[in-house]
């Protein structure tokens, strides 16, 4: 390690804030909360958006089952209590990312309006952008895709409390962005989201 | 929102990876894990480092009691189990930040070696840099500072299981960085850390 020569090279301007980080990155942080049925296309849109944002020089990070359910939430099951705690924790993590300047892309079914609204309030109380993206899709279309074979298992009774089959999906009342993944192209969907991010001044690119 | 005109503007290169994010930011993500007694100066060093990194154009984010204990870990108390779960969750969050390209600055007493080592293993298994920063300081020096009046309360028996008084602090065996906050200047401490980040190729600035 280099020997310390210079002295008094302290940072004098006080704590680094959200604004400092935004200036460094050239964009603001925010949470994009994708919600919709299993198979509605949440992850597909999030992955495509992530690529487009990267091309625009915007830092985003996806929170999904792979890095959350197998990580911080590995000690949670699928009881009603655990599902609520699952969404609460994801909401808190998304908020930390948004605060850090990153655009958090949260992609979970998150079927209950009350849980989603709690995450919204958490962000809004801290002056952070929470953008609910309803990936709307008919149950028929989602079930016919069934990318993970989960609907089949739910219909066979092998999975209980499956959203859309024997557990409700509560549609957002006023999502900031309402996509229709069974009618729109992926490009259209992503462009709608980028438009919203520009309109809100979150990105300029 | 702008009408979609162009088609086929999909992102074709597959999922965005850690490497894409590093390229965008110009540095790698990592976790700097500050550990030491209450009053040892963990936060002081982390805040100063955060400012210096910002000047260098490096994105970092502090995880501390303010944004973690009052947020995602608000449902945890101070039992042995809860303390372990507290550190586990912080470790998982730091790992997500490191993966996103951000330099996570985690600043908690984290007195138990087993808990810290679990976080280390979590990072190393995923090929991420975990840098343990031992903010070493005599109990006498930490207690004489007592910035939050906690030692006084612990000595008076108003706080139980206080690290250094009636609960052990297990010093790191092989910390990547060993600071002596009662003997070094803040500038020296921060320069040691920056030196380590440069040596590891995490930052080039």
UniProtKB/TrEMBL annotation, chains A, B:
Keywords for the protein's UniProt record, in alphabetical order: ATP-binding, Kinase, Nucleotide-binding, Phosphoprotein, Transferase
Function: Catalyzes the synthesis of activated sulfate.
Residues at which ATP binds: 36-43
Signal sequence interval, chain numbering: none
Pathway listed: Sulfur metabolism; hydrogen sulfide biosynthesis; sulfite from sulfate: step 2/3
GO biological process, one term: hydrogen sulfide biosynthetic process
GO molecular function: adenylylsulfate kinase activity; ATP binding
Reaction equation(s) it catalyzes: adenosine 5'-phosphosulfate + ATP = 3'-phosphoadenylyl sulfate + ADP + H(+)
Coiled-coil features, chain-numbered ranges: none
EC number: 2.7.1.25
List of catalytic residues: 110
Superkingdom of origin organism: Bacteria
InterPro entries to which the protein is assigned, alphabetical: APS, APS_kinase_dom, P-loop_NTPase
UniProt family annotation: Belongs to the APS kinase family.
Annotated gene: cysC
Pfam families: APS_kinase (PF01583)
Protein name: Adenylyl-sulfate kinase
Source species taxonomy: Bacteria, Pseudomonadati, Pseudomonadota, Gammaproteobacteria, Cellvibrionales
Record domain APS kinase: where: 28-179
């Amino acid at each position: 390690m280099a020997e310390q020569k210079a002295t008094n090279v302290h940072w004098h301007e006080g704590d680094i804030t959200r604004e400092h980080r935004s200036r460094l990155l050239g964009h603001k942080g925010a949470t994009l909360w994708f919600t919709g049925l299993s198979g509605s296309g949440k992850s597909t849109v999030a992955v495509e958006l992530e690529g487009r944002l990267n091309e625009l020089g915007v830092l985003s990070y996806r929170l999904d089952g792979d890095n959350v359910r197998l990580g911080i939430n590995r000690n949670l099951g699928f009881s009603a209590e655990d599902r609520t705690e699952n969404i609460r924790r994801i909401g808190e993590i998304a908020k930390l990312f948004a605060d850090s300047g990153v655009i958090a892309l949260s992609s979970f079914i998150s079927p209950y309006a009350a849980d989603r609204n709690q995450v919204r309030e958490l962000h809004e109380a801290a002056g952070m952008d929470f953008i609910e993206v309803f990936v709307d899709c008919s149950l028929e279309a989602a079930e016919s895709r069934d990318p993970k074979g989960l609907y089949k298992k739910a219909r066979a009774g092998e999975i209980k409390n499956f959203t859309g089959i024997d557990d409700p999906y509560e549609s957002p009342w006023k999502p900031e962005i309402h996509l229709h993944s069974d009618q729109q192209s992926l490009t259209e969907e992503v462009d709608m989201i980028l438009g919203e991010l520009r309109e809100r001044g979150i990105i300029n690119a």
